[in-house]
Amino acid sequence: MLSKFIQKKEKTECFTLNEPTDEIIEASNKHVGAHLSIQGGIDLIFEKLKGIKAYAAGFFLKSQRTFNAKPYTSETIRAFRNANTHEKLLPHGSYLINLAQPDKEKADRSYNLFLDELVRCDQLGIPLCNIHPGSNVGKLPIEAACMLISDNINKAHKVTQSVVVVIENMAGQGNTVGSKFKELKLIIDGVENKDRIGVCLDTCHLFGAGYDITTKEKFKKVMEDFDRTVGLEYLKGVHLNDSKEPLGSKRDRHECIGKGLIGLEAFSYIMNSSIFNEIPMILETPDPDKYAAEIKLLYSLIESK
């Protein structure tokens, strides 16, 4: 066992860390990974995943800065499927997608981009696709904005095979939809096929939106609130990020694990709670060079039975 001091902006925490053996990792049922670059080819995700000893991966399905990416070739699809080592995958949809857009021309463009992401997941055999719900640029009542999002998801479900749309909670910046659990619930309520909708909880976004997760007890209460409002059955993934900004700031600025204002106790709760078993948990912290060390740190938080 190792004792490790983590210096935060406001306080110092001391944790006893266990060396994460293969047996401990396997028994934990936790699938921790990181958001990886697809540079060089999307099929290289699995090689990169092994290089940092990750058990899950997030990634963009194509350039997230364009509406008009080239479709996959049959060679790309075959290479990905052949390379797939069946870790937990949670690709991230383009930031250009806004399913709450009320302007028809812009809404059609956004929907087509969203649909393209789901088609790509189907082609690659990926069961989940994570998206930001949208931004209420039309200043609609929140119920109407959520219904727009639900309607777009329903429309896409009808023309795709099986991929589950995983909506992400937001920090509350600007006009974004989804910072409150009740907004996620409104979206899910409007989705017809409940087997193809889920939620990804981002820890930095939770904290920014005012959900205090800084201790195990507080985090437990937040998850009880999530279960009452949304339902734990819809939890399909987690984005693991500390925060540079204080509680309730409505700002989305990620920090490395244990180095921000959330602190290690929150992540210890995640790594020791069965709520988070068997789902992809993806680091999106600022320094990819530290991903391997952060993954090891997270697994070292698993408590001895």
From TrEMBL:
GO molecular-function terms, A-Z: DNA binding; DNA-(apurinic or apyrimidinic site) endonuclease activity; lyase activity; phosphoric diester hydrolase activity; zinc ion binding
Biological processes annotated in GO: base-excision repair
Record-given protein name: Apurinic-apyrimidinic endonuclease 1
Cofactor(s) annotated in UniProt: Zn(2+)
Record-annotated Xylose isomerase-like TIM barrel domain positions: 55-300
GO cellular component: mitochondrion; nucleus
Source domain of life: Eukaryota
Family: Belongs to the AP endonuclease 2 family.
Keywords noted in UniProt: DNA damage, DNA repair, Endonuclease, Hydrolase, Lyase, Metal-binding, Nuclease, Zinc
Species of the source: Nematocida parisii (strain ERTm3)
